[in-house]
Amino acid sequence: MGLKHQAVSARKWRAAIRRVESHFPSHLPPLLFLTDPKRTPDPIGIAEQLPIGSGILYRHFGADDRWDMASQLADLARRRGLIFLIAADPKLALEVGAHGIHWPEVRLRESLKWHGRFRLQTASAHSRSAIVRAARMGVDAALVSTVFPSRSPSAGQPIGGLRFRRLAQANPFPLYALGGINADNSGQVADVAGLSAVSSFTGLKSDGPTRA
Questions:
Q1: What distances in angstroms separate CA 38 from CA 84, 89, 90, 113, 151, one per listed residue?
Q2: Domains of the chain with CATH codes
């Protein structure tokens, strides 16, 4: 990707982030970076490019080096003013001082045991009923997928930007759009939800906070 293309991509991302910030709860990061062992082999490098106030969601999937990586990401988050979440591992999150926990939809009920122990709890949701359940369980937000076509091997049939917008507008509960989110399509959902992605981040580093 050329420097000009990177600059255009960065401008689109930042414009979309500003749109999220205009309506999203201030305690939630407008942008979430989800790690993936195969698709993001260098999560530190990507996290270094995120604007201040963004979030990192570390998914270790049982990796042997999970403690070391979580510690590095936690330190980076503190240094750069980022929000750090760990997926489905509250013990590790407590050990490294993470801000919160993310729960897969099938483990959502476990969030009840951790209310008040973390700054944030989020959950995955793959249907309208799952969104309602997440809201009732008291987590802070739900990540809804798959919105746009995605390269992820676990991605389902995309629901599309229009359908996702309707879903978000029908639910006052904060949602993140996940699945195929990139600089070009992020603006389609930024005024109704937060943004979350595994890759597609380019030239996003900012020396100051994005929120006013």
A1: 20, 20, 23, 31, 12
A2: 3-197 (3.20.20.70)
